[in-house]
Amino acid sequence: MSSRKITYTAAAAATLLASAYIYRQCSCTKSSTKAPLAEKNQLGATVSNSKAFVPDSSWVALPLTDIKTLSPDTKRFTFQLPQEDQVSGLTVASALLTKFITPKGSNVIRPYTPVTDLNKKGSFDLVIKVYPEGKMTNHIFNLKLNETLLFKGPLLKFDYPKNTFNEITLLGAGTGITPLYQILTSILSDPDQQPNTKINLLYGNKTPQDILLKPELDELQKKFSDTFKVTYFVDQLNNDLEYNGELGYISKDYLKKSMLEPKSTKNQKIFICGPPPFMNCYSGPKASPKEQGELSGILKDLGYTSEQVFKF
């Protein structure tokens, strides 16, 4: 199935039905209350004066200060750092570990990538989708303002080398946008990198309503149109939204025409992140949280190598 460039209105959208995006993309089988600040977090661990998270740091209990609904199953959560003049301490590309302790005393730990500017002081945001059986996602969705969640980090995923890649392709689906967004905003906000790096984001979702961070992405494309392009892909259309993008999955043919040739003399990198069916289709799964594993799927079929592709 190939994608078609379209602009749909509500009337046209009402006639279209399709299955969920990530499962048919290819045939490859309130106002907030400010919480008090302190020199020590709620576990008693002293924090850095300038960075909230440093290597080998202890778990830090941070209060939830704001919640915004982004889609029917996804929200943006703002957590306050211990000090107003602190940054998170994360670098590109890194995440934070979250933890809570169940009533039975077991630990539930999950990684999440903040979507705020790494230089932002005082707080950071997480974009999280709730899953029916997700222990951590349900715990976070049930948090009330000023209640706390345990954090630890930074968890480095990819040590991004500045001014190394001439062209970057960001290939994502659903909440897989979060680490890709961190890379994107870090490059575009750096005047030493932005003019020298072309970035192409291909972002798939079930419906236009499910596209996360769309206002931010559209604004970045408008501001940096010379070096950044975003293309949206959806599996089906809402009956109440206009949509300007592609209908269908990110096809092999679309990738072939929109990306540099695998053997191009330009230095390129492909970053990919999404749910398991998406990863299986395009790159193959990671071998483990710390190991990339063998490259497979559409990207391998197109001739790209493991050195050119990084899986989040």
Automatic annotation (TrEMBL):
Question: Record's GO cellular component, any one?
Answer: mitochondrial outer membrane
Q: Which GO terms describe its biological process?
A: cellular response to oxidative stress; ergosterol biosynthetic process
Q: How does it sit in the membrane?
A: Single-pass membrane protein
Q: Which cofactor does it need?
A: FAD
Q: Keywords on this record?
A: FAD, Flavoprotein, Membrane, Mitochondrion, Mitochondrion outer membrane, NAD, Oxidoreductase, Transmembrane, Transmembrane helix
Read off the InterPro entries from this record.
CBR-like, Cbr1-like_FAD-bd_dom, FAD-bd_FR_type, Flavoprot_Pyr_Nucl_cyt_Rdtase, FNR_nucleotide-bd, OxRdtase_FAD/NAD-bd, Riboflavin_synthase-like_b-brl
Q: Which Pfam families match?
A: FAD_binding_6, NAD_binding_1
List, alphabetically, the SUPFAM superfamilies matched: Ferredoxin reductase-like, C-terminal NADP-linked domain (SSF52343), Riboflavin synthase domain-like (SSF63380)
Q: Where is the FAD-binding FR-type domain?
A: 57-161
Cite the EC number. 1.6.2.2
| Residues reported in the UniProt entry to bind FAD | R110, P111, Y112, V127, K129, K135, M136, T178
What GO MF terms are annotated?
cytochrome-b5 reductase activity, acting on NADH; NADH dehydrogenase activity
Reaction catalysis annotation: 2 Fe(III)-[cytochrome b5] + NADH = 2 Fe(II)-[cytochrome b5] + NAD(+) + H(+)
Q: Name where it's found.
A: Mitochondrion outer membrane
Instruction: Spell out the Gene3D superfamilies in the cross-references.
Output: Nucleotide-binding domain of ferredoxin-NADP reductase (FNR) module (3.40.50.80), Translation factors (2.40.30.10)
Give the family per the record. Belongs to the flavoprotein pyridine nucleotide cytochrome reductase family.
- Protein name, entry field: NADH-cytochrome b5 reductase
According to its UniProt entry, this protein's organism is: Henningerozyma blattae (strain ATCC 34711 / CBS 6284 / DSM 70876 / NBRC 10599 / NRRL Y-10934 / UCD 77-7) (Yeast)
Q: Gene name?
A: TBLA0A10090
